[in-house]
Structure formats: structure tokens, C-alpha cells
């Protein structure tokens, strides 16, 4: 299997590293901290021992020297261990890499216990820059770019197994929802809203659950890092009109598996998948510290009107970004950016697409192929 160079660089002090299963957290950390003590809570025997006798965790760390590293994998399974982690950081100056695939139980039961003594970092599916010459947008569309899937000899089968494991290990095993069949019905419906403004009422109606239940399910998707939301941009100079956020899944392969649509690739899928890929890339670069901005949002002029996929906010500076999966720019592609420019002053106005020509449109919009766009992100 090819060894891709990841963009994540571990800090020198204790940190949480969060990311969906299969994204490569354990592989990277074990490679970086070769001499660290590894505690893997997926080891059922070890998990049961710590669950019944938490003192065993303390005993297992008793021989670790000050300044040495300890890796605790799947830490969300036993967040109560963070009490002891906190003590070891304070009293013995041991450094911890705390890996997890869910922020839910950590946020509820433990992260704050460390009192800011551990940084919070993230790992993402493969980025274009990480894949280099192996990058294929068609492959990303079809199967996504989670390392576990990307390197699989049978990505379709692996994706289906991935979603089954998600329901079994992340949802059922942790008793996150009372009604597992209801959540299972919710997933393919929520997948249809990938790259769209969230309609809670419509979601509830389509999967047969109450509005409050849908809101809880959406929070679960975010807590388990499967999806994230992008808020609407609000012009502070105008009357605030609260608009619903947009929903993005973290990976196109996962969203297609959730829809149970892994055969072929329909043309109508590409628009949402390309927009989702750009959303995930912007989020990843921001969390990696390579995109300096206050917030990533989207802009809409109102119901059934034009919108701009992304607005990068940094102080008073705004950058508008429109993502299009086509190769031949059409006049209507520029309508949203032009309307936004009429509403607020933009530092830059960019259209990213899958074509190969880089140029400046008559409207002043920079038209950038995907590869060129990626080179510009850190310059925003």
C-alpha cells in the first residue's frame, strides 16, 4: 500500500485527535510516536478491564516516564479515563495523544476536565494535495477519499461494511439513540440533503419522525463527525434574517453509501458531490491552520433566488466562492457572485470548476480549475 504524506503535524504537547473511522489517525500517530505506549480501547478485553477496574489504567501508566508519550485510541469509549489523564499531565508531565471518532461523549463527559491542557486537532479524508498524482476526482466522486476506502481492493463492499459498522459501533454500541430503526431510516434521507439547505420538517416527514428527533439526529451526525453544517452569511448592516444552515457529509463515498447508491455515477450527483468536496476541503484547511478565516458560510438572496456556495469571512474581508462540477462555464454560473458583489464588497470573487482554463471573467470573477484553486486557498 502506498504511503501518502499527510498534512497533519502533531503538536509537541498533549492533544485530542478526532476524525471518522478509517481516516488514518492510528496509523499516523503510531508512525510518529514509535516509542509511545499504546492503549487501544477497541481491545475488548482491555476495555472491559478498565471499565470494571479503572485503577488498572493507572497501574498500566505507572512506569511511563515524564515527558514520554501515551497514545489512547478510541478514547470516547471510556471518557472517564480523562480524569486520570488530567492528573498524569499535571503531576507526571506525561504527554497524551487521545484519538477518537466521536466528539459526543467526550464533550459531554470529559474534554473540559483537561482544562485546556490538551489541544484539539482533526484528521480528514485524503486531500488533493496529499494524494498528488494519484488524485482522481472521478474516484473521489464514486468512493470518497477516506484512506480505508481509497486503498481498498473492493471500495464498494468496504463502503457498505463501513456504514454497517457505523450503525453498530458508533450508534448502537454506545446507545446514542433509543430508536435505531428510526435513525437507520433517517440516514439515506439525510444523505439526499448533502450540499443543500436543511429542511427539518421535510426530513422528519420523509423518515417518519418528529422535528425534535430530526434535530437530535442531525446533531448525532455532527458529533460522530460524519457530517457538518455551514451557516448562512448574515450581513451585519441589514436586518438579521435567520436562514437555515446547509448540510455537508464529510465524504462523498459515505454519503453515496448512506443513500445506497454505489452503482455507477449519475450526472445529477456530480454537482452536490463537487460542492461537498470543496466544503470538506475548506473545512480541513481551516482546521489544519492553513486557511485563516473567522467563519465559512454560504450566502442566499432569498427563497428561490441566487446564492453563493461559500463565503470566507475574515474580519471585514469577504471572499465569495462558487463551485461548479462542469467543464464549460455558463453565464448563469456567475449570477450568485455578481448578486453578492452588489450586496457587499468582496476581496475576491472565485468560481472553481472542473475545466482546465484559468482566466478572469468579464464580471471580475476569477475562474479557477480545481488544481489552481487548491494552490490559492492558503493565499486567501
Explain what you see.
- The protein contains 16 helices and 14 strands.
- With 380 residues, it is an alpha/beta fold.
- The chain has a domain at 15-122: Rossmann fold (3-Layer(aba) Sandwich), CATH 3.40.50.
- It is globular.
- The mean pLDDT is 91.
Quickly describe the structure.
This protein is α/β, with parallel strands linked by helices and 380 residues long. It has 16 helices and 14 strands.
CATH class of the domain at 15-122: Alpha Beta
Low-confidence stretches: none
Output the CATH homologous superfamily of the domain at 15-122. P-loop containing nucleotide triphosphate hydrolases
Percentage of residues in helical conformation: 25-40%
- The CATH architecture term of the domain at 15-122 is 3-Layer(aba) Sandwich
Distance between the termini: 35 Å
On the 0 to 100 scale, the average pLDDT is 91
From the 3D structure, determine the CATH topology of the domain at 15-122. Rossmann fold
Query: Strand order within the widest sheet?
Result: 9-10-11-12-14-13
Give the percentage of residues in beta strands: 15-25%
Oligomeric composition of the shown chains: single chain
Structural class: alpha/beta
Rg is 22 Å
Main β-sheet description: 6 strands, mixed
